Amino acid sequence: MQWHGLAVRAGGDQKIINTLADAVEKVYADPAYHEKFAKMGYLKIGGMTPDQFNQFIEDQGNSWRTSISASGIEQQ
Questions:
Q1: What is the helix (H) or strand (E) element at residue 52, kind and residue range?
Q2: Are 41 and 69 in contact (CB under 8 A)?
């Protein structure tokens, strides 16, 4: 599994965050974007708002922490 996203530092300027989110949404709305990535084997899962992406990152971290802990893999 693989995902991509943009991140800014914590406490970043909300105006800049909104500008980036709007720009990404415009690209994401373009069918040519999805056609190009589909040719590389990517699946379209839908865009996320900044808040949704933050929650996604948190959920992924929790999920992987649980899986790694359960596997017995030691931190190096």
A1: helix 50-71
A2: no
Report how far residue 9's alpha carbon sits from residue 3's, in angstroms, rounded to the nearest whole number. 19
What are the structure tokens assigned to 38, written together? 């589909």
Residue 43 pLDDT = 79
Reading the block at residue 22, the tokens are 């709007």
Asked if residues 21 and 49 have their Cβ atoms less than 8 Å apart, the reply is: yes
pTM score: 0.67
For the chain, list residues with pLDDT below 70.
Answer: 1, 45-46
Domain spans of the chain, in order of start = 14-71
